[in-house]
Amino acid sequence: MGIAVLAHIIVVMVLSPLLLGIIGKTKAFLVGRWGPPLLQPYYDIGKLFRKGNVYSTTTTWIFQAAPVVFMATVLASSVLLPLGGLKAPLQFWGDIILFAYLYGLARFFMTIAALDTGSSFEGMGASREAAFSCLAEVVLFLDFIILALLSKSLVLSRMIEGNILSSWQLFGPALLLTGASYFLVLLAENARIPVDDPATHLELTMIHEVMALDHSGWDLAYILYGSAIKLFVLGALFVNILIPFHGLSPTMQTMIFWGGMIVLAVGLGIVESCMARVRLNRVPQLLISAFVFALVGLLVVLIKGV
Amino acid sequence: MWLELALIWIVFLGVAILGNNRLGTMIQLFTLQSLVLSATPLLVHPGKHAVVMALGTVVLKVFLMPNLLFWAIRHVSIRREVQPLIGYGKTLMLGGFLMGVAFLISSRMDLPVKETSNLLVPCAFSVVMIGFLLLVSRFKAITQVIGYLVMENGIFLFALLLLDKTPLLVEMGILLDIFVGVLVMGIVVNHINQEFGSASTINLTNLRD
Amino acid sequence: MNFFLSGLSILCLGAFLLLFTARSPRSQGSRRISEGIFLSSLISGCLLGSVAALGVLIHRVPIDYRLNLRMPAGEFYLGVDPLSAFFLLTITILFLFAGVYGCGYLKDDKEKNLSVHYAFYHLALISLMLVVTAKNAVLFLMAWEMMALSSYFLITFYDEKEAVRKAGYLYLIVTHTGTFCLWIMFLLMVRQSGSLNFDQMALASFPLPLAGVLFILGIIGFGVKAGFIPLHIWLPHAHPVAPSHVSAVLSGVFIKTGIYGLMRVLLIVKDFPEWCAVTLLLIGMISGVGGVLYALGQHEIKKLLAYHSIENIGIITLGLGIGLWGQIAHHELAAWIGYAGALLHVFNHAIFKGLLFLSAGSLIRATHTGEIDHLGGLLKKLPWTGHLFLVGSLAICGLPFLNGFVSEWLVYRALFEGLFHFKLNGIVWSSLAVISLALIGGLAAACFAKAFGAIFLGNSRCVDITRVKENSALMYVPMAVLGGICLWIGLFPAVMVSFALRASATMTSSTISSMTEGMIIAPLGTVVLGLLVAVEIMAILILFKRISTKFLPVERAQTWGCGYSMPTNRMQYTAASFAQPLLDIFRNVLGYRVKGSKPKGYFPGEGKVSSHVTEAAEDLVFRPAFELIKSLSAKLKIIQYGYTQLYLFYIFTFLLILLIWKMV
């Protein structure tokens, strides 16, 4: 099992920044530029690993611990998720709750680390993050409820790959709505447009970026890397929800899964190219619509009978 | 399965209309909803009757009405619903609640006709509720027209139940009624705008004694 | 039973001796003596009590004690079954540590008569132990009353303050309203079953309508104590004004007696209509979400914690609700896990909320204020308090590695069990409960990020903290032990979970095989495995970073002000502004208002802003109701003249009327 965990983590660590690279490339193509190389996120993180740290005199150990906790919990959560042919090394009844709460832990530490600097800008980002993630978590759990009802299971792997093919035939509409609402959660949780703009550096409009304003060097590298992993893991969950894998051979599963990931990255790039960031006070509304989508999905599941 | 997907798309677009504040986007979403709607008769009862209905819907709701509405907002040059009676978040939550009620009611309802899919009635109900909510919660006349149209889309879905029972003429009559209604409302919107300098129906309260 | 009784008698003896030393409170010597008596009797009494409880939980053999006193109403009948034992364990552990802490906490109150306070503390502990072990309705109600009175005197320790007296008064009124309902409930039960003893009551069968009436009475009577919204109004007033160790036990165990009583009723009556389970779930959702939202709007640390007690009572009630539903639907597993989750959360909440209140007290002792927005940067000054507060915060948010996660996991698990196996109605309610539990988790995390971040991180906003020093070891050692228990349950949940499962097996009156028990505990073991992965990754990341610092420069500088060169501490984000976006989303539910005047002009003068939430239950329901009662009772003054003869005359006429009524 130890080896399986290690393999899983290495795959995630090696491939996750690539997703960001693909998104960047897509965005560049859509505006008619050649764009930065596909491996740019790796270079960015690598550059930070060669830099020293500057710490504010206000901060305590929490400021330094948060990046580590963030990256570690996000990485550990990937162990609960199957990646194409790779089975999830850790599966148990009720692991979805651990999955969701690990992100809660990461978020808590990032929030208090932002408050640790005593900077009003970072406090602002932390406050927004806390507010929006509350709503996102509710939607996430509603999606989990739908998946659990369809698969009669509380094991993440079984929930997303169990008998999902037959679910698609019977509950196609419900799964579609679940996918839609989860996609919005994905965007909100990973600070993508239209919720947050990872490219701007205007403090007043940012959420995630502003929370890492004072981090530098290795800490910032961990945070950037962790964000890439978070996008990768939550994206893999999205691909897993929407694509029926059950009964395929491992090689087919692998191919479909990675193909799905690439399509997801391109899709994210397209979404970000053609949408504008919504105003901050409209973000809750976006998440509420995600909630309503999932709610209708649940209603459909209930009325079709489980 | 395809019918259900279409139904869910219609509800989905309804929710999207509910959560939007740009009039242009709302009309576009409505157009899309009508387009999906026009496919439903073919999925329920393929046949001549259905084709005529689908075509009628496309012509009226996908081409004529949206253009009319676009013309109206160009004329009164308003782009968004600024201050709705009930906030957007709350309307959405209310919409979710009403949809729950719709599903509840339709699961208890005993229909004399056999339904093709057990999603048809709840979805029809939901769309009616969404339209109703739009009518109640918004001030701008255009938004209210859109709400009215969304509601009509829901009623159209109900009519699908009786597709092979009602004569074509009744359907067409209803569609035509709606069309004339929208036309009149368009003119009214224009006049409200000319009279009061804005297209908010709240001004109509000034007309009382 | 010997352990339990000897513990009880040691405490009685201690209380008695303490009253003897109460004569000369201000001399240093007598303070020493009373402290000595207090600590020694508390420690031995609590240890004996918890040993008794552990014995019952481990061997699963309930013990009984009957004293053949011909009491006027029923016998002196005590019994410790696993359910009682679980609560007994919770009570003794928290009272022990809070009491030791209290000794350190009250050191500075030179003017107060501490012996009396200590005696009341003992009395409260004794009455609590009796409440959870009494097996006779009259004995139960007597202990209940004793508990209410002794806690009243604990709350009003600082009785020279107006707010304290008011809070105590409110508590007294509200708790007696509850007791009134309990009397009716028990009388109905006695009438139906013909016995005052709980075990015989349980043998009687209660028709469903009567069960519904009993349920409602129980909800009101016990809910007042537990703090269900909207019956919670006394709680946010009483908890903050009491001394911190008293707040800790109030929030940790006193309000749980309401939960205990409710569970006792569920155990005695057994068959309930389905709407009862719906009511419990609904109360759980409202109290849970409402409690945490109100907490988010608070500016004072102890008031914030008080509202969080309501939130946690909500989580416990969700567990109870799904348990009851399982009981009604004859789905054993859901009932079993649901009750177990509720019970374990009772224990966990006692531990982490106790810890949080104690840290808050330590904070207030050190800085003389509990205003969150005035503080900041205290982690460096109060390392013990700060870090233990962090442990408590992580636990109360239900985050992994700590005990809150374990019990919330069990409640989730039971709710999902309901989702899989109940009928449509049950599925809808369980999904709603899951969603609200998720919302509670998120909001609680936001709230404690706010509290911890604003108080302990950044820089101090108003208060001068240069001279702030950590309190004595007598205060932080008990806190550290409580923090240790939080971590222990979080990392090795098996023991406490199996205790909770055994206690909840009493509720479902089923014999659970050790295999099923293992089946439920096993996933929690795997959770720990997952956490281990996270810890290993953390260790590796830290190691790499450590190595890197050997080669790379590390500098210290000011926090980047985003181009502004003269940032001051007052410019930091405050707790109130941190909570603003969330409160704004829920502003209509909360009555959230922001008042103030913005600075105007090129050379602006002073501006100020304040925000607060209104208590809907208090302002809209109870205040008008109390006003009405007040005006009505004012009218009764007509018959009062102050002559003793007149009152005797009233009594005489009343007797006469009774006699005549009896004859006819």
Helix/strand layout:
The complex is a heterotrimer of chains A (306), B (209) and C (664).
Chain A: H1 2-30, H2 40-49, E1 53-56, H3 61-77, H4 95-116, H5 120-151, H6 156-161, H7 164-189, H8 208-211, H9 217-242, H10 250-274, H11 283-304
Helix pairs in contact in A: 1-9, 1-10, 2-9, 3-4, 3-9, 4-5, 5-7, 5-11, 7-9, 7-11, 9-10
Chain B: H1 2-18, H2 23-44, H3 48-76, H4 88-108, H5 120-137, H6 141-161, H7 168-196
Helix pairs in contact in B: 1-2, 1-5, 2-3, 2-6, 3-7, 4-5, 5-6, 6-7
Chain C: H1 2-20, H2 28-59, E1 63-67, E2 76-80, H3 82-105, H4 114-133, H5 137-155, H6 162-193, H7 198-203, H8 208-226, H9 235-241, H10 244-269, H11 274-296, H12 301-328, H13 332-367, H14 383-396, H15 403-421, H16 424-456, H17 473-491, H18 494-508, H19 514-551, E3 554-557, H20 575-585, H21 587-590, E4 593-597, E5 608-612, H22 616-635, H23 644-663
Antiparallel strand pairs in C: 1-2, 4-5
Helix pairs in contact in C: 1-2, 1-4, 2-3, 2-4, 3-4, 3-10, 3-13, 3-17, 3-18, 4-5, 4-10, 5-6, 5-10, 6-8, 6-9, 8-10, 9-10, 9-12, 10-12, 10-13, 11-12, 11-16, 12-13, 12-15, 12-16, 13-14, 13-15, 13-17, 13-18, 14-16, 14-17, 15-16, 15-17, 16-20, 18-19
Describe this protein with a few key phrases.
heterotrimer; B: 209 residues; mainly alpha; C: 664 residues; two-stranded antiparallel sheet
The parts of chain A where pLDDT drops under 50 for at least 5 residues are none
**Largest sheet descriptor of chain B:** none
- Would you count the extended β strands of chain B for me? 0
Spatial separation of the terminal alpha carbons of chain A? 35 Å
Provide the residue-averaged pLDDT of chain B: 80
Explain what you see:
The complex is a heterotrimer of chains A (306), B (209) and C (664). Chain A is an all-alpha fold. In chain A, 72% of the residues lie in helices and 1% in strands. Chain A has helices at 2-30, 40-49, 61-77, 95-116, 120-151, 156-161, 164-189, 208-211, 217-242, 250-274, 283-304; one strand spanning 53-56. The model of chain A has no long low-confidence stretch (mean pLDDT 89). Chain B has helices at residues 2-18, 23-44, 48-76, 88-108, 120-137, 141-161, 168-196. In chain B, helix 4 packs antiparallel against helix 5 and helix 6 packs antiparallel against helix 7. Chain B is mainly alpha-helical and 209 residues long. Chain B is globular and about 50 Å long. Chain C is mainly α and 664 residues long. Chain C contains 23 helices and five strands. Chain C has helices at 2-20, 28-59, 82-105, 114-133, 137-155, 162-193, 198-203, 208-226, 235-241, 244-269, 274-296, 301-328, 332-367, 383-396, 403-421, 424-456, 473-491, 494-508, 514-551, 575-585, 587-590, 616-635, 644-663; strands spanning 63-67, 76-80, 554-557, 593-597, 608-612. In chain C, strand 1 and strand 2 (76-80) form a beta hairpin. Chain C is globular, with a radius of gyration of 26 Å. Chain C starts with a helix and ends with a helix. Chains A and C meet through strand 1, helix 3, helix 4, helix 5 and helix 9 of A and helix 15, helix 16, helix 19, strand 3 and helix 20 of C.
